[in-house]
């Protein structure tokens, strides 16, 4: 039975009797804004972490309460009658991962009631993503995806679009959050709780906690957002907490009982309001009435707020009202006040002296890598799902989407959750991956067996994939090819450009040959699997899969592949036929550290010089660009501070999951037994170094690439000395960088960083290292007047340039103490076999390159996309040779001679569940970043969809829950303070001509479209 | 707007949708009892202490949550929708003090809904008194009054009568509770949680935790009740706690989420059920689903119980159902099982080795005295309110009734609450007293100015009373009578017998004379106010009233008064006229301790001998009864144990508010400077002794009385040595008492106690003193084969006979440690002036007398009533002499030559708010207690109401919420085990003939009547 509006009315009336109605006192909660008074906007809210101390499901159902008393189901269950009881009461709800769990369990009648509450504005969705994502360790594509997932759900179920950004808890705030996930989503404002304590202090004095934020240099005022940092945190003023069992004084207004305290409470309220008004522009202040997992019995809060509004307004000194951030924002806007401008971002964040929340930039590097790998995979999988056609019933990418969305939470990818919760995120990703893997395999099978050839609808090809390739484990490729079997490798490229790249797979056989899609043998190289990698493989395969692999492949087979845009090529690996044919075995040379010699490696433009007795890289030269630098690479570790020397009034502060607080830097000098092993071949040169017993490194140069790839295996970090450690690598040059370096914002814009300096206030430096750390998702670079030195990363890490000419990345952390920010667990990741545990080893890569000044962006942007979207490998076996006749061996989703411009990436191509196709195109360059590419560019949609006819193209806001034109129409135009720097006209792509279907993209612009194709959707149909 | 039944129906339906309805799972909670299976009766309940760590009002509104998170308003607010959501859900509510606070704040529509819930049985009132009263420190009259207050409210508002006794938390259980507040109230069963750990262990083995309890030797099977002690406590089995944030595993039955655990939880449930079934007769077991202040969000419990019932019954191994103690009781009864018989009581209670909860028998002796004094005053005030006629608007006795009711709570008069809560009880009593004092004053004024004389409706006499007479503070009597003023003392006797007694009032003037109602001068005696009393007066008057009295009276004036039953006499005190007239000044003689002499005091039958060098009483003789005993009285103290020597596996156990655990006994020997002061006069002889610096004692013999009164001032107990102390007095004789003594049950039946012995099990003695302590409300006595030695008390105390021939009373306790039973505060009572605090002093009395064997009961019963109902003194001043002509000087409410039989007390005479009159008559003797008086006796109601015509007389159950005949009709007849001792026929008074109006009373019978008078109710009308 669905509740009709009239029934709802009756219900509201009756539940009203049950809850809001006192026999003797009818509380007047109807007050709106009163001009001329301090208006205290009471914003009832709950902050529900999508996993932290408990898993998301545990938080939802309220299990595992011994860790933390929290049950989101209670919050939402109790909220509905509390709102029904008084139509003036309001509530905001944020985290859609929880809301969706609740929603799907509600009856039609409850759903109908809740829809009315949303329509009436009593219940407002704020932020509206699946989670309140982290802003440091997240990639912008993930931020967009998780926000879109939440926003489209809200749009579909409630036909509303959230208006407000609500990032109240993340530990620092990014430029991308403000301009992209704020303004470009169409939010009218953005509120947050955490801001550097020095910054906050100054802003209180200047009344500049609220401002207009222009996060993007390129999009500037076209993507600005009104923003507010809270005066303290996201909790109520002290003494106004009203959860069950909270100890704030309740308003005792029953004169028949003792302890009547109405005037006391009114006085408390007025005092808190006036104090806040004194640091706030305009006479509107917001009280965030709630905190983590509150409103488990919503009635307790509303009862007290009803009374406070009633009595405070009777008192009359200030005006109290039920409000939401939307109402508050509109009230602020209506004042016509001018606001200061803020550019860049709010990193790093310190909540007090010596407490820089910069450790979490690196915390849980394995999880961070897994999230990033799954993000790239999800992008590719959606493309392949689109090619195949989405199915409602069979496997799809939705569970991976969900898992990834949840993993963006500010206690997920951030690494600040408890270990069991980190395991839960990983489990969800693994489950989501497993389903997406089937989508990919099926789609590729459809594509290779396209109807043109086989007429088959259910393809027979079974593709295997190798998610554990990072630990050199790939059963699909570790097959014996000596019996005439052939290993088919389909290599899928999710980028919009043709791509030449080297792939590496473990193999058993020594004498194998590689043939391309046309059947031509291509050059390939066999590299020995070193002990470090073999050890990693066998230990982690046992730990993760439960058994040690029966045999260890002896080699990596490496070869260069060439893959069309949004398409695949096919390579076949088989036993080599005849002498001279087949792969080339690498030459291997080992140098002991006592040998004093210099080794040069690199067969292409880039040459590296290593000193054998120093055991390290010493020089970098690019013979094409003629760049040469003395580059020394080294490893160090910081000891984690244990807080023991903090004397009062300082609060003891350990290093921990959140906080980086080094207690001494220790250079790791290669030991006496350190050796350099040089592996050379036609495809790759590698220098293997065992730095010490727990660091192994491979420096790798691909013949065709002008950059250096460094692969490291770090761990287990030793803690026998009872001290936690944080391992960094430094790349030192002689460049005069003048304290300046650049780090990306969520993999997108680069922001200029100056050591020991903040744009917004005079920094007091207490932590010269931790206080200069920034999150790195794409890369970090520095410049002098002739060159730029760029480092790109494969996952989120923390990094800095703590010394001129040097770049430092933190690769791994293992700490033995908690840092008192709530997680209550030391960040001490271990891996166990048969209950014997050892510290986690991290395998990862970073890449560096030196360019002439002004020329580094091309590599950072293009190769950055390649890192994010590695080639996707699918394996199958075949007997016999005639593949080309029976299968499609090469495919591209775009027009046959088309590829996206060099400055554009296809960041979303996805068939939605309503059959529409979601497309996002991203200009990859900022204004002024590259001479040639920081320009307006075009994408031809007809070429992007060569086999389809676009019936309707609708440009949407970034989260695809409203038309872009509607969003623009509603946008509030905030006044900024006079004297704010004027700005050049912002460039934006123009409207898309529906016949030409060419999309213009200005620098840093991302455009989002919903496409409806004219004809019925043809699956995997393409011209032969 | 009142909800009509059909509206209610709709509401139920709709709220049902809101709460109980899951989209995918409809939980079947409709299961009833299933024969042949273990039936697990889930009894949802909350245990809401009417004050403990917080005051009753704080618990109700949820303030002071920093002490304890508890808010009863939440419980009741959240309960209503939770019950509406599923008609199978049930709940019991117990404490009417809370329920009434909630009820009066509810709208008509909520009240209407709740009435439906009560009618349908979803909400059942259990126990139903204002509080769950204590059973050790309470007087049976208070127990009856507070139960009546709750029961009549429930009857009036809901037309239901509670069926079940529910004393789940009190610390030991009394015989009076079982037979009187259980069976005589009409309860079908009585459940409780606390029972001696040794007793419980044995009962588990014997499956005798449930039994038929015959608490009264006299009334035996006519007042038996089916009773059950819970197997552990009154909480759910471990792992089944479902309050918000409780950490029991919730039933996670959503297969789309992780951690699905239905089978695990079902297995846990079945295991707990089987374990309990194994120690329980029949296949019905009760789970008390709740505990202290739970169900603040009732939904959280019901959601889990819904699921458990659903899945456990699907599993089928046991049967789970929503139940109540009523349903459980009926199910037990239906089995036709035979039950063991229990007699006597469950004192003392130990919850583990060395943890005897016998300290609280004495804890907070001042509060205990205040409660007792107010109880007697309330009885008298109601009589006077009845004479005057109850008014709805003016002052009445209701607030004193409320305050007294709340003070009976098992953490109130018990002394086990926090200090601020004890203060709250005292404040409530003081407020209630102040209003009742007005009722008394006005009523007496009406009576003395009766219309017959003055025609006045608003009397002009302003009577003052002296509630601080116990600290010798009485401004009304401390007036200067030398100016011709006369002090009029109206002396009211609330007993049904004529009474001769000595009253004592402080006076300023030395030369005063006392005249009786007839104007005859009577003998009076002036006693000097000693320093101990003067110090007590001045210190406590300053502490309580804020200022030291300007002058200190020098004397007590004592004289014998004679007052008719339910009536008053008038005495006039004025300046003595002429030599020889007026009061007699006492002779005072002081003996130093070095003097070796013997003093005899007593001018009547009783003579006491004191040894001056021993400084103590040595001999007692009654020259009339010819009893003589060597009696030595002394004081000792126990050191409070500090738990420090408790080695594992013992849990450290301090002495504290609950627990008496002595660590050594220390005799207090009068010091060298001790002296005996003997005060003699025509009315009283006194022996004053300063025992030490903190004990002062007066031994007093009234000329006309055959007992000894001992007044003590004890305190501040010294704690400079860091050790808490418990002070006792011992009365030692040479009687051969064979380990046996007798203590009363709540001031009513006497129960035989045998040292180091329990009737029900083989006692393991760990605490030879604390384990032999019993609560004393009326008195304690012992016998040998010729005499009996009786001690009566003025308040609840703990006492024992730890040595043959000796009786010991604990008078005061001051402890420095908490005893880990929740109060979390040391019982260290202090009194402060200007922030300088010192330990509380206790002023009190006990009385003793020695009789020939078999003759002690008369004194214990008659004088016991006089202690409970002291003469009520009202003072006014007058000029001139002609009082007798203008005022009524003597009055009796009963027929002119009538008085109640010696074995009957009028324990209630009260006009109810509906105009009916509530009458309770109590036979004061047990069977066999007294040769003459343990017999059936009669009360003539026509004589009791000489000026009224009884129109309708309805005999009620004890709590006056149902007719006695109805109650008898419904009574369940439990089968008892064969071999249970057979019993003689129980004697009970027969039906009252409506014309004769004579009430028969059998030994120990209390009969309760509602009386409607035929004519309109005439106020203070009586024959001249």
TrEMBL record, chains A, B:
GO annotation (BP), single: mannose metabolic process
Record's cofactor remark: Binds 1 zinc ion per subunit.
One term of GO molecular function: metal ion binding
Domain Glycoside hydrolase family 38 central, chain residue ranges per copy: 355-429
CDD domains membership: GH38N_AMII_LAM_like
Residues of the signal peptide: 1-22
SMART domains registered for this protein in UniProt: Alpha-mann_mid
Family annotation (Pfam families): Alpha-mann_mid, Glyco_hydro38C2, Glyco_hydro_38C, Glyco_hydro_38N, Laman-like_dom
UniProt catalytic activity: Hydrolysis of terminal, non-reducing alpha-D-mannose residues in alpha-D-mannosides
E.C. number: 3.2.1.-
Entry keyword set: Disulfide bond, Glycoprotein, Glycosidase, Hydrolase, Metal-binding, Signal, Zinc
Cofactor(s) of this protein: Zn(2+)
InterPro entries hit by this protein: Gal_mutarotase_sf_dom (IPR011013), GH38_C (IPR041147), Glyco_hydro/deAcase_b/a-brl (IPR011330), Glyco_hydro_38_C (IPR011682), Glyco_hydro_38_cen (IPR015341), Glyco_hydro_38_cen_sf (IPR037094), Glyco_hydro_38_N (IPR000602), Glyco_hydro_38_N_sf (IPR027291)
Family label: Belongs to the glycosyl hydrolase 38 family.
Protein name: Alpha-mannosidase
Lineage, highest ranks first: Eukaryota, Viridiplantae, Streptophyta, Embryophyta, Tracheophyta
